[in-house]
């Protein structure tokens, strides 16, 4: 728990001039050596944690999901569809170009999943008016997995304020970012210590 009077280490900024890193994690890259890469496997556990949360108490049925840094492979949306979770309204946001894969187009066509997305979009500048949920509703679930380390600390600060403005009582957030251990990855602009 962060306590304002407690001394905190500053985030580690690799390159103060870089604002974003748009690295993507693709399944083809994760398996090119014939085995699952550890980073991709770790992501699988994170997506499955979100899935388990949604299944618990049937939260998926009326879930309004905001997936920040959803990725060009749409792993969380695919997880929802492949596990037959019908009813959620999924909104993906990514800095890269996005094209829904055929399987998700099929899900939308079959009324199994409602999908909206913002491509080439910095989630920190979204407003409440931008959110496409019916009746100007707020997200019930906000997800940002392995995203924070790919943005400048100033952008991250703005993103956290934006996320806070999207929260209502009962909103759940899943965040994940590496813990700085003395050596940041080359594609990480900023890493936080524990």
Please, could you describe this protein's structure?
The protein has helices spanning 27-30, 38-55, 75-82, 102-109, 153-165, and strands at 12-13, 64-68, 89-93, 114-118, 141-145, 172-176, 190-191. It is of the alpha/beta class. Strand 3 (89-93), helix 4 (102-109) and strand 4 (114-118) form a beta-alpha-beta unit. The chain is built from five helices and seven strands, in the order E-H-H-E-H-E-H-E-E-H-E-E. The protein has a five-stranded parallel β-sheet, covered by helices on one side. Mean pLDDT is 82; it is low at 1-11. The longest helix is centred in the N-terminal third of the chain and has 18 residues, at 38-55.
Q: State the separation between the terminal residues, measured CA to CA.
A: 10 Å
Spatial shape? globular
> Share of helix among residues?
25-40%
Counting helices, strands and paired strands, the structural category is: alpha/beta
Describe the biggest sheet? 5 strands, parallel
What is the averaged pLDDT score? 82
How are the SSEs ordered, and which strands pair?
Layout: E1 12-13, H1 27-30, H2 38-55, E2 64-68, H3 75-82, E3 89-93, H4 102-109, E4 114-118, E5 141-145, H5 153-165, E6 172-176, E7 190-191
Parallel strand pairs: 2-3, 2-5, 3-4, 5-6
Antiparallel strand pairs: 1-7
In brief:
The chain has 194 residues and is an alpha/beta fold. It has helices spanning 27-30, 38-55, 75-82, 102-109, 153-165, and strands spanning 12-13, 64-68, 89-93, 114-118, 141-145, 172-176, 190-191. The chain has a five-stranded parallel sheet, with helices on one face. A two-stranded antiparallel ribbon has the order 1-7.
């Amino acid at each position: 728990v962060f306590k304002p009077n407690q001394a905190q280490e500053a985030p580690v900024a690799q390159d103060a001039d870089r604002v974003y890193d748009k690295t993507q994690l693709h399944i083809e890259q994760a398996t090119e050596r014939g085995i699952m890469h550890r980073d991709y496997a770790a992501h699988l556990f994170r997506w499955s944690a979100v899935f388990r949360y949604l299944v618990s108490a049937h939260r998926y049925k009326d879930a309004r999901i905001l997936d920040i840094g959803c990725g060009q492979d749409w792993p969380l949306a695919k997880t929802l569809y492949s596990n037959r979770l019908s009813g959620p309204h999924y909104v993906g946001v990514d800095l890269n170009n996005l094209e829904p894969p055929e399987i998700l187009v099929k899900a939308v066509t079959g009324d199994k999943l409602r999908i909206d997305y913002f491509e080439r979009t910095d989630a920190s500048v979204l407003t409440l008016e931008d959110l496409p949920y019916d009746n100007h509703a707020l997200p019930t679930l906000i997800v940002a997995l392995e995203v924070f380390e790919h943005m400048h600390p100033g952008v991250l600060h703005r993103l956290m304020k934006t996320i806070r403005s999207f929260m209502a009582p009962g909103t759940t957030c899943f965040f994940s970012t590496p813990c700085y251990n003395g050596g940041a990855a080359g594609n990480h602009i900023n890493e936080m210590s524990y």
